[in-house]
Amino acid sequence: MNDREGEAGQPRRATRPVAPWPRRRPLRFMHRKGWLHRRHLLMFILAALVVGFIAAVFSIGIQWATAAFQRIEDARPWLPFAVCPAGLGIIVFLTRNVFPGAQGSGIPQAMAGLRMPNPHQVDRLLSWRIAIGKLSLTMAGFLCGASIGKEGPIVQIGCSVMNNIGRIGMPRTAGLQRLLIVAGGAAGIASAFNAPLAGAVFAIEEMAHHYDGVTGRSVLAAAMLSGLMLFAGFDADFYFGSAGAALPFGPAWLLIPIAGVAGGLAGGLFAQILVSPTRFLPGAVNRFAHRHPLLFAVGCGFVVAMLGWLSGGRVFDSSYAEARAAVHGTALLPMSFAPLKWAATTVSYLSGIPGGIFSPSLAVGAGVGSALSRLVIVTHLLPGMPIGAIAMIGMAGYFAGVVQSPITAAVIVVEMTNDPAMTVAVGLAAGIGAVSSKLVCPVPVYEAMARQFFAAVAEPKPARPVSG
Fold first, then answer.
1. What is the DSSP letter of 207?
2. d(C-alpha 9, C-alpha 457), whole Å
């Protein structure tokens, strides 16, 4: 990082007066004449459908990239040691020089946009250029085997689409733009996980932090419309298929608090590292990353390749197949899977490439549940234990520990497995995981990172006065 960059690696901009929003009542468009309301409704529907279409195309591209990397690894097991370092270095170079603002998950950028007072800053943060960069560079990350997910990028892309299409022909107000950003986040999660309810809950619990009638209806409509595009146009199914798991009330329920505490602490540690990496990395590594970010990314790529080799290729990309097998109870993941996946995701994120943490976190949680199942099987404590159900509670506990949004975590796990019978068990694990996580990471990861991003981008420090 040089003197011309801000605290989060963003290029500083010259200080400029903040352009205030027009003095209109929030959501005044809802009270204007009928034709204006109908125009807004039409553009809102169009934007939500576009988000769903982009998410479907994005998912197809990621499947292709994942399969291409798998072929590379199968053909020459040593090739990831060249592809991962070179790929991550190139992606970080493009992120910093061509698409600044596209790094990381994308959810903190969207949340930072909700609190920016200058509408032009929001437009720069949620622009078409950033959306294109996020989409292409995230797919490149999958092509390099990085342990990342697509959900955070889809949220930023969804917010960009809603921000640019949803307000066409409408009076510009802070209330309208905020509503469109929140609705874009809901549409992004809904289309990424094929889970409209989870998208709506995420947008309200994690992004908006409040609920009112207009917000609730708009968020739910955006989530449903984007999901409609997936189901109608691309024959989408539930994210993990129908798991059919069940956890009858009995001694096996004692594993819920264990999974919640273990997953919550591990998820909280992961979140705290993302928020404050300098507290956990050695001083020499911090200085090297500060001065040579591209070489640091290359080094991170080598570490990811090494972790992938140690895991037999299981921790590359999002580890979707491993998580799916765990929740369906068709395979027990190795004891080493959860810590290796945890480390690969941490290193991939710290490298500075674009990519989300939702899918990798779900895979880590499934690994936590599988590890618990193995321990119980070895000790013969619970014969005939449903290993798929234990994987699901481990998934909910760890994921809630990362994001500290227990309702979102529970709804996502239940909806993407089409398994309402696990609602109570999954909800308890998510609640315990979120509480345990706060012992390690007091501030939720997305909230803390949004504050950092806002401080670096929206409030650049004034230049030092030049002395005589």
1. I
2. 10
Predicted pLDDT of residue 232: 62
Q: Contact at 8 Å (CB) between 352 and 331?
A: no
pLDDT 10s digits, 69-108? 999 998 888 999 999 999 999 999 999 999 987 888 888 8
Average pLDDT taken over every residue of the chain: 83
Whether 325 contacts 241, CB under 8 Å = no
Beta bridge partners of 356: 149
C-beta of residue 27 within 8 angstroms of C-beta of residue 176: yes
Nearest in space to 448 (alpha carbons), one of 273, 198, 186, 200:
273
Whether the predicted pLDDT of 357 surpasses 70: yes
Domains of the chain: 28-234 (1.10.3080.10), 251-454 (1.10.3080.10)
For the range 56-62, what are the long-range contacts, defined as Cβ-Cβ under 8 Å and sequence gap of 24 or more? 56/191, 56/229, 56/230, 56/233, 56/234, 56/236, 58/135, 58/138, 58/139, 58/150, 58/153, 58/154, 58/157, 59/150, 59/192, 61/135, 61/139, 62/138, 62/139, 62/142, 62/150
Q: Is 8 exposed, middle or buried (0-12, 13-18, 19+ CB in 10 A)?
A: middle
Q: Which amino acid is at 224?
A: M
Estimate to the nearest angstrom the gap between the alpha carbon of 48 and the chain centroid.
19
State the residue for tokens 């590594």.
285
pTM for the full model?
0.86
Phi, psi values for residue 162, rounded to 5°: -65, -40
Q: Can you say whether residue 12 is alpha, beta or left, with left for phi > 0 and alpha for psi between -120 and 50 degrees?
A: beta
- Maximum mean pLDDT: which of 149-153, 232-236, 379-383: 149-153
Cα(305)–Cα(259) distance, integer angstroms: 29
